[in-house]
Amino acid sequence: MHAEPFTYFHGTTEFHGYCAWTRTGSSRKPAVMIAPDWSGCNEFAQNIAREMAKLGYVGIALDMYGEGKVAEIDEEKRQLIQPLMEDRLLLQERMRCAYEAAKALPQVDSEQLAAMGFCFGGLCVLDLARSGVEIQGVVSFHGLLQRPVALSPSPIHAKVLVLHGYEDPLAPPEAMTAFEREMTESDADWQVHVYGKVQHAFTNPVAQNVAAGLIYNAHAAKRAWASMTNFFEEILTRESIEP
Q1: How far apart are CA 33 and CA 87, in angstroms?
Q2: Which helix H or strand E contains 84, and what residues bound it?
Q3: In order of start, what are the domains of the chain with their CATH numbers?
């Protein structure tokens, strides 16, 4: 496996992501961009990029804040996420810049791109789809679902998969219903897989905040990963899986 920094720009701001892939087969492979949770492009996001490489894709972990900023405490995370939550056009523009930069990588098949995201990152990949880019598909793990009401809707070309806990306090059942209505009105190819008795951050082994509803669930995490794997096998062409 080969891994290296993934550096790109939005305006004058430099972004420091992470890229991993295996040196097998042809020189170009399908790619999966990974939008991290509100912590930033940390070891968890980079590990997901390596897992994507093991599956035969180019895994590209994104930097949503610029300059490789990573937050450790919640207050820092809120300060970093707030400008993007308040300006969804800015969020979409950053995602589109990352998308164009990923397409230009020499190891990436520019016609075979998808994206996945966790929590805040789930919102990021959904907003990338909402921006109308010609990406094959996006996957949201326990993501935020609210539509950007200040922006005019664009046609959604990406296939959409949402993997969600029914008891997620950050996106409860009524938010899922509104999202499903939005996807239907956009004529998107969408799926929502809902896991009963599951809350937010269910893929994160260190999530144990009962009061906030952030609880790791190994069964839901395994089921969601299998659904994601099947989804990418459907929409992307890969050559081989590393042993």
Answers
A1: 22
A2: helix 74-86
A3: 2-235 (3.40.50.1820)
Q: What is the largest CA-CA distance in the chain?
A: 49
Partner residues linked to 13 by β-bridges: 10
Cβ-contact 77, 71 below 8 angstroms = yes
- The 10 Å Cβ neighbour count of residue 164 is 26
As a whole number of Å, the CA-based R_g of the chain is 17
Residue 120 tokens read as: 């805040």
Classify residue 6 as left (phi > 0), alpha (psi -120 to 50) or beta.
Answer: beta
Which uninterrupted H or E stretch holds 58? strand 58-61
pTM, rounded to two decimals? 0.96
CA dist., res. 143 & res. 164, Å (int): 7
- C-alpha distance from residue 26 to each of 30, 32, 72, 132 (Å): 11, 17, 39, 29
User: How far, in whole angstroms, is CA 64 from its chain's centroid?
Assistant: 11
Give the tens place of pLDDT for each residue, 66-125: 999 999 999 999 999 999 999 999 999 999 999 999 999 999 999 999 999 999 999 999
**Gap between the Cα atoms of 16 and 61, Å rounded:** 9
How far, rounded to the nearest angstrom, does the alpha carbon of residue 187 sit from its chain's CA centroid? 21
